[in-house]
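Repro:
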Amino acid sequence: MRAARAPLVVGVTSHRNLDASEIESLRGHVREIFLQLREDFPHAPLTILSPLAEGGDQLVAEEGLKLGAQLVAPLPFARELYAQDFTNEAARERFESLCAHARLIELPLLTGHTHAEVSAPGDQRNRQYAHAGMFVARHCHLLLAIWDG
């Protein structure tokens, strides 16, 4: 019988609007981190925990998948509603492509929130985003934070 191996879970939090001139450098740094983790923990399969927002969330997910990591995507609310928040078609297409490779978790609405309230910009929608960020932070072993400078 083969022993179960506990995964090493890497979460991500990031700004959406990363400087385009820094994207390739960031990709390289993320790849280096993943390769180092693979070397340091060779028996722990890598799992990426990313809400798949544009910017660093997608970048980390893409780099993890290239190295054979499992992708888990906690979404702040229903996938269809979340997809409406992407500012351009390319980011929305990347989101859909990443969803096809991920185990999706549509987080439940917080107590007192309704679908109608989170469908429009405002406090309830912002709290759902914060809820997704807290989910990532609580469920990862290592949190990568990619900021816009």
